[in-house]
Amino acid sequence: MSKLTEAANGVYVISVxxxxxxxxxxxxxxxxxxxxxxxxxADGLTILGMMGEAPKMTADEAxxxxxxxxxxxxxxxxxxxxxxxGLAALKGLGLKAMDTGAAGVMVAPPGxxxxxxxxxxxxxxxxxxxxRDVPVVLQDFPLVTGVQISDEALGxxxxxCPSVVMLKHEDWPGLAKISRLRAAEAGGxxxxxVLCGNGGSFLPEEMARGADGAMTGFAYPEMMVEVVRAxxxxxxxxxxxxxxxxxxLIRYETQPGLGLAVRKHALWRRGWIASPALRKPGAGLDxxxxxxxxxxxxxxxxxxxxxx
Amino acid sequence: MSKLTEAANGVYVISVxxxxxxxxxxxxxxxxxxxxxxxxxADGLTILGMMGEAPKMTADEAxxxxxxxxxxxxxxxxxxxxxxxGLAALKGLGLKAMDTGAAGVMVAPPGxxxxxxxxxxxxxxxxxxxxRDVPVVLQDFPLVTGVQISDEALGxxxxxCPSVVMLKHEDWPGLAKISRLRAAEAGGxxxxxVLCGNGGSFLPEEMARGADGAMTGFAYPEMMVEVVRAxxxxxxxxxxxxxxxxxxLIRYETQPGLGLAVRKHALWRRGWIASPALRKPGAGLDxxxxxxxxxxxxxxxxxxxxxx
Amino acid sequence: MSKLTEAANGVYVISVxxxxxxxxxxxxxxxxxxxxxxxxxADGLTILGMMGEAPKMTADEAxxxxxxxxxxxxxxxxxxxxxxxGLAALKGLGLKAMDTGAAGVMVAPPGxxxxxxxxxxxxxxxxxxxxRDVPVVLQDFPLVTGVQISDEALGxxxxxCPSVVMLKHEDWPGLAKISRLRAAEAGGxxxxxVLCGNGGSFLPEEMARGADGAMTGFAYPEMMVEVVRAxxxxxxxxxxxxxxxxxxLIRYETQPGLGLAVRKHALWRRGWIASPALRKPGAGLDxxxxxxxxxxxxxxxxxxxxxx
Amino acid sequence: MSKLTEAANGVYVISVxxxxxxxxxxxxxxxxxxxxxxxxxADGLTILGMMGEAPKMTADEAxxxxxxxxxxxxxxxxxxxxxxxGLAALKGLGLKAMDTGAAGVMVAPPGxxxxxxxxxxxxxxxxxxxxRDVPVVLQDFPLVTGVQISDEALGxxxxxCPSVVMLKHEDWPGLAKISRLRAAEAGGxxxxxVLCGNGGSFLPEEMARGADGAMTGFAYPEMMVEVVRAxxxxxxxxxxxxxxxxxxLIRYETQPGLGLAVRKHALWRRGWIASPALRKPGAGLDxxxxxxxxxxxxxxxxxxxxxx
Lengths: 308, 308, 308, 308
Known about the structure:
Pfam families (chains A, B, C, D): DHDPS (PF00701)
Largest interface: A-B, 27 and 27 residues
Protein name (chains A, B, C, D): Dihydrodipicolinate synthase family protein
Strand content of chain A: 5-15%
Oligomer: homotetramer
Enzyme class (chains A, B, C, D): lyase
CATH topology of chain A: TIM Barrel
EC number (chains A, B, C, D): 4.1.3.3, 4.2.1.41, 4.3.3.7
Family (chains A, B, C, D): Belongs to the DapA family.
């Protein structure tokens, strides 16, 4: 499988990890949801991210998921989340993933980092440990990590680490950060790919600011595919029409903590996974919340029909 | 002016504090925006909240704003944000506000509180300091305060403090919290008013869960007024139609930090305030962001026409 | 090996994990430092704690360390730190450790927990996952975890979870917490063992408050052994004399982040480990700091001679 | 009164604010404690710091304390803490303090700052608001503020802001930071004064690293005076002997939150203030803790006699 480069673009779906009601990995559903993501138009997949419940896996499970999805994806690039409290585990999973055929690895900063120099130093160490041949996606998600990566720190990392080829952008607010990064590139900084997360909740604006696509796991990846396509084609109004039709559910799915249960509920309702179960300590939706999500899905379907 | 009670409901608009380009308070704009809020159908106003840039005011300015808005509001209830690091300042502003005719005061927990007992103890102390006659609105906004108020802590406060008559609800996710509070009331707990914040971003669902209305400052308060009215009238589809039309801008305005500049830009574009300026350290919108907001406002207007 | 019970007491040394300069585990040094801890009078050992650089190990390394130390310790109880972001890894290592002959496991709360109910729920889940036969040490270390465990939450956990037999106490300030826990036990709550951490920096006072001993890794474990012995024998003045002689170094070793490098430097100077190296991202002492530590050790030796 | 400069050195005592049992300011005790600090050898005073319970004062009380202490100090330099959530209050109190004769103002960063650029921008704004003629002390206290100021950010502030003449150093661990700052000055950076806080718990080492003295409020300021004198005189052993004698109490007084009550208890036992009361929400010592402090004070007196 080819490796991730700075030219990567389009929609990389953050894959869920399906479980059965006992908490065991549901391998059939993992195959099916992989297929569905690709049928929906995904250009790549990202597994073992936060929303893939990565920290709940044992090391053996993680390795098995990597192998299973890469085999199933049939050559479509697969990025593997390898964030870990320690460098040994990060490097261990990262190199194993690359050996298995991953296109690259994704690394979020540990919550203890504070200053620009600490953040820069961390990524230098990570990239050195992984080696120059392992493409790295920098996940910038302050709401969850607690780490605020400044323009200066991000720029320094890009300068320091040639293997950082992509930013998974989910700073919030974060639109101006994309503009400033692209302006720095116009001024000579090395170009990297920017794929945006946060459930897609600012996708049209992010594309207008210079993002290359989306890397997120909203339960209707066809939204990301169509918005990215339309924005690239200059069909701004169309992009917003599609986006707005999905926005009520996007908003609902973006709720921290609860969001993954919403996403799995929707994927289960679509028949993409056999159970909406999360592995503990995660919990599923209560009856009232599930009904709320169902009503949003129904409204969404009607609105999509209206806009055609 | 009559005081706030547990029966309060409807829309309390979180008022901005208008400044001119030098950072001085623009009193004419304060009068005008007060008028516009009331014309839009507000049932009450809340001043000197976080989005009213309260911490940036001197003590004298705060007192003057309280007097000005209460006089202008002509009997409509005005809630005054009095959160402060120390009890002396909180009590000082609170009692002065009540003397001036405020309907009640709003208090967010200081960020140092962690355990249920600490949070409960803090509100007991605040209510004792203010005295039994000062109605208190508990602002529950973990994203900003960093303080997570559990159901148990909230219940204990309601039990302990008869003067806590309202919850300004902006926990996120927070829908189930409303349901659990209402369930506890069905089981015998004292009923309090629940008005919801977060820029209105979950207003239809919050009303369905048992909220009594909204207390937030979205730049188009007519959205809150119509959604609350429609939900109370059982016109759920209408409520969602209106809400969905505004949602792209609501989403944009809910960005932490940036949101107030977006709100002031929209209010300025509407002619409700003479300048979109924030007082330092706040900053206004850059050109690209302002254009983005303008496009959202234009789309919003078209969509509102479509739904009638 | 016998399992940990509520009656555990004395000194459990938090063991370092020795590395060579390349970052590889130095198994000979691990054997030697294990021996030295026991010769110094340790009643037990705790491995793979935060100061054992646990998060930097791979799963295989962790398992190997467990086996090695338990075998070497020859029947002395060994507690194994198993804190992990996810329950699967925690349970996996915990059960493997118990199978290998561990006396119990130690679990710190994940940093995302905030409310009493969340903390209580977390430990209920952990204890259920491990099963009733696995003794659990609750590590209460807010400075590092960010989780403040109130008296109420701690009491609820003790009530809920019979397998929680020990508190590793390192709240700061935390003396009154010991007194309140012992008062609650006098009022009928189940008694648990309390061993104190924080590098021993309040050990005489903790013993006077009702602690059962120390669980910490200060580089001179004979200090803990003698202070605990003296306090138990009613020799308060002696306990303080010994403690005070070590206090300048205790203070220096308690510096967050830096402390482990200080500890390893002292153990290396003593010949207990062959290298003071930390595994990355940890770093050793710079020359100036090392000299400072050396001077403190020299003063400490002289003061110990004076007090006899 | 003359203004603070980069050449400031010696001991600036962080003054308590004495209250009576009702929470009212005890002006007589404020006069007396001011006198005692100066008799103990203080080179300056710092009022309205965190340990002066500044956030609990009303604006009027703060102004009155400033005037009272400056008048009483009779020309000894007085630094005034003016940290506030908003710039208007900070500037208001700062300029008023300078008009009253303060030597300078002290500003800690608000907890919302994260990146180097944000911290640098904040101090640039503060210094611009205060004007070039107001000497500023930068308080670097991450344990309480949550803001980690890197060497780079600190250096940039020194370069940007000529009015920043002093660092109140209480980063922890922080010794190497002093060394790095002095090394940068050797390399050409503007020299500023460094006075150290943290209750004096690393004072001998800080002096050896290049600090100019102490700015902290330990209840026995004669400790700081003698340690600073001895270190400046090259009497290192004497400095450590004195320091070690006080260290058990220093350690006890450095407990976060509890520490101020310990300090006020000791000052009250010395007869320097008429009541150990803190203003709410602070609380005094319980009986057991008070007895513990008393025993430490007694041991300290005996040890001081031994060393002469």
